[in-house]
Amino acid sequence: MGLFDLSAATMVTISGAWLDPEKERPLIERHRRVAPLLDDIAKVHADLLVFQNRGKGTSPEVLALQTKTSELDDAHDRLAKGLNLVLLGFSELCRGYGVEDPYAQIRDELFPKGLQITVESYLVQAGDAELREGRLSATSKRALETTVIRTPHGDKSLRDLVNDWAKVADELGAAEAEKVRLRAGHTVEGSSGPARRAWVKVVSLFVQTLELEEGLSESERRAILQPLQDAEAKAAKKRAARKGQGFDPDAEEEGEGGEMEG
User: Fold this and answer.
1) Domain boundaries, the chain
2) 151's torsion region: left (phi>0), alpha (psi -120 to 50) or beta?
3) 259 or 141, which is more confident?
4) Cys-Cys crosslink for 135: which of 99, 109, 141, 185, Cβ 3.0 to 4.6 Å?
């Protein structure tokens, strides 16, 4: 496996030293064949850092969406609970005055499981918005349109409030779907993931080019390559030990030292 035996942490340590102006970078920059490869090394190094960070924590984008979905869920639940109470109140008033009560039916159609909808997943809450519209009868829809209440935002019909509830649910579903998509893109990279493959490809070219570099002394070559060679030897030894214990190293997604690859 060679370079692929190295953990992501080892990879970024090695390429980081090559890119560091206080370490090997000035030495590499002095040689015309390998100096241009520093740009390629910088790119694959940065890509590895991205995957490393994705594996260790939550991205800023996901954190922002977590805040957004939490706020939308709160708005969704308040609208649901408010509508439920308003419908219950109107239903009680109708019975108190002995007049026809359309609100009990509306409540049953909008909340067939009571307020269970407020504890469902975000995607279920989003999906129910379309389903509950289909549950409303023509009589219920007319009653929603003709019943108007005064709110802090002006007069609104119950139809308006149901629509507001559905809009928040749709936004909640869209935000949750985006959060799921981003989380999928921020998972830990496996042992042969794209960032690692790119790093191995560039570093292999770098090592080969060093062999062609004229004017590079043996001490300079050792200064650049010795950490990489030591790391490869150490990783190969651990790989052989795992294989001797009956583990299949190719099936694992862990790197040197048992670290999860990032």
Assistant:
1) 2-57+188-258, 60-185
2) beta
3) 141
4) 109
* CA–CA gap between residue 160 and residue 30 (Å, rounded): 71
> Looking at this protein, which amino acid is placed at residue 5?
D
Q: What is the pLDDT of residues 105-143, one digit of tens each?
A: 999 999 999 999 999 989 999 999 989 999 999 999 999
108: tokens are: 């049953």
Tell me which residue has tokens 């509508």: 83
pLDDT on residue 52: 59
Separation CA 256–CA 56 (nearest Å): 16
With the CA atoms of 111, 114, 119 and 120 taken in that order, what torsion angle do they form, in degrees rounded to the nearest 10? Answer: -50
Please say whether the beta carbons of 179 and 14 come within 8 A. no
Residue 86 is inside which H or E element, if any? helix 60-97
How confident is the model at residue 56, as a pLDDT?
A: 46
Q: Dihedral (C-alpha) 182, 187, 193, 198: value to the nearest 10 degrees?
A: 60
In whole angstroms, what is the distance from residue 174 CA to residue 167 CA?
A: 11
Contacts of 256 (CB under 8 A, 6+ apart): 5, 6, 7, 9, 10, 231, 234, 235, 238
pLDDT digits (tens, 9 = 90+) for 152-205: 878 999 999 999 999 999 999 999 998 887 776 554 455 557 888 899 999 999
Secondary structure (DSSP) of 144-210: HHH-EEEETTEEEEHHHHHHHHHHHHHHHHHHHHHHHHHHHHTSPP-TT-HHHHHHHHHHHHHHHHH
